[in-house]
Amino acid sequence: MGLDPGTTGVIINLVVGGVITTLAVVIFDFWLRKRLPTVFEYRKYLHDERPDVTDHQGNRVAALPSPPSGFLGWMRGAWDVKLDQHLERSHGLDQVMFLRFLRTQLWLCCTIGLIVAVLLPIYGTGPFKDLPEKDADGNSTLKTLGIQIVTLSNIDGDDWRVWTTLLADALITVVACVFMWRDVKVYADARRRYRASRDNPSNYAIVVMDIDEESCSESQVLEYWNRLFPGQIVSVHYVHGDKKLLKKKARFWDAVTRRERAEWSMANDPKLAGQRPTHKVGSCVCLNRLAQEVDSIEHWSGQQTHYYDKIGRYQIGEFPKQMPATRSAIVVFATRRATADASQTNYARFQQSWKTSRAAEPDAVNWPSLAIKGATVDLRKLVSFILIMLLTFFWVVPVTFLQGLANLEKLTELDAFRWLDFVSRLPKIVLGLISGYLPPLILSVFLALIPIFIRLLVGIQRQHALGTVDALQRNYYFNFLVFSNLIFVALSGSIITYLRQLINDPGSIVTLLASSIPLQATFMINFILLLALSQVPLSLLQLGRWIVRWILRKFLCKTTRQLRKADDGGCFFQYFRFYAWGMIVSTMALVYSTIAPLIVAAAVLYFFTSYWVNKYSLLYTMRNPYESGGKLLKGAFTGIMIGLLLKQIVMAGILGLKKQSVPAALEVILVLLTLFFLYFIYTNFMRVAKHGSVLQVEENVEREGAPDMAADWIPAAYVSPGFKPLPAQVPNLNGVDDVNEEAYYAEDVELAKIKATEKAANREEVSDEFMPALGDPMPVASTTDNTVPMVAVPAVGK
After folding, report:
1. Do residues 737 and 643 both lie within one domain?
2. Locate the CSC1/OSCA1-like N-terminal transmembrane domain: which residues (predicted)?
3. What is the SS3 assignment for 592?
4. Does 265 share its domain with 188?
5. C-beta separation of 497 from 489 below 8 A
6. Quick one: pLDDT at residue 536?
7. CB 779 within 8 A of CB 789
8. Please, are residues 305 and 750 in contact by the beta-carbon 8 Å criterion?
């Protein structure tokens, strides 16, 4: 059996991917195993610092146990963890729904693989494998080679085998709908629990945007909602812009970090020999100011006190011009029932004002977007959409180049590319490397940059929840992948393959497309194999994260605070990216499942490795700072159904091009049935999944045996980050033991206390509200408690 470059690329991909996977396992097991507790596994977060979770009956739910040591122990421990309500409470609904999505796609592809396996011998007996490669005029024929022999390209238009393809399509449609219906049902149940939970602060808060200009104050917003919900309002947080506050907070923590580093240097740097460290400040060429050498500990202690004082004055409103009103507020209700009513009903006279929606969890609120004016929202969405579409369409340039690489032999048939004749004389393995392996590799590298641009473009929209931002990024990224990696690759590859014939006979495009689109399956198979055998094993190692952390810990980080920051770097899991990859792989497998059945095997391999590795990563090495309640699964379901519809439309088109009108019409019926299934799912599950169930709320209240009242900590949780008070005492994480610290630390605290007291006494502009909070601005604390005493700043909000 002859081999085409694409088939040779598949073989190379399997060999190279197998080597990478083997090396990943060996390195993971024998090199990084001993470093796992400090390099990857956030044991302190998962086991020590994370409090025990309680269920609705008050029963304690322990965190996940540490898995056994060694590669097999870690991976087996991850595989054995069940995707149940225990994991929802300990790790969040986002994680459970994502892992369930990958697992469902794995079983779906396995089931489809059993269906299409029957097509392999049927396609393999087709007539086109016996054709010569060139006709009498020197043009390429429809001869199939390698993997192409067991694809739809090997079937003639009026062949009885087409009916087996139609039957397989019908079975795949039924199987896909059953799997996705089961997932959506589980998703809706989980979302109902999420929306009825007492522990979820977003069940007690709404976001109000586009507030009338005459009501732009906390008291007026409170009066407005008290009028609508008497006795139900716990607090109102009118949102002010806090960019300047956040910058000052960043400088405050930078001063804390630098002071701790200076203290560590004094105790541990042999060059200092116990002397206090110094550094130069104040150099400015334009003002002809020379740098002065200052005591580092004293300087950064003073900066810490200065910014603490400055932040306190900002937070009590001494600089109103620096804190512009945003016409947005967060209203916290006493009960879950009142919150649900307020978030789903329009209470204003006009739709353009007092827009309400359920608030995200406190850590998931996209605070900067609340400052965007309502008049610009539609324009921002339009600009963002247009720019992303332009990015998608301009992507045809690199994809066309890569398709040229994938079809070098076909290009040499054109007079303009005769200079590439040497390609046909290359060994098959080299040609397979260039044409079959390099294009998907280069494409995957380019695609890694696309989410960065999409993130920037989505960021200009007003989306008050970070989970919604992730969902939009996932949707745009998936649409981009469908166009660039599927539709355009199939069309451009088909046109390049038979470019000479199309130039000589443009009318033959219909026949050629019907037979040549399946030939691009080898590109898709290579792309999926590259993800499964190269990208996924490398994500298991997280080498980039490990290298950065090693450099930081080895050369830059010395204090406990710096070391923790280095350990925490790179732990953010980009759900939108991995959802999009899973969706595009599933779409490719669905579209080409009956065109080139072997692609399903590649998809099974991808989802198997992706599910296992991502499950391990999410359980033990990665964590996100916010939770969106698993809402990304809704868009993932829609994406898979779009892939199923795309499959049916493509098959209807191919069968129509092959002059099989009856099977093509039956494919259209499958399209209509799938659309009806989508309508059924959205009308019966999605609204309940979004808003929850009042009945479930009432059942939870009865089961809890206590009034439905918001917990005391919820109102303070919805204060914007800039206005959250700094801690009264910052833990001193300089890494110096008390014996060495006592010699100088008490002196620095006392010096900072004196300076702060003098500054507060001499500052006449301090408001009366802030002065009581100063009290004893820098009280001396015992050096044995390892904390830096700070003044208390009153919280903002009612």
Report:
1. no
2. 11-182
3. helix
4. no
5. no
6. 81
7. yes
8. no
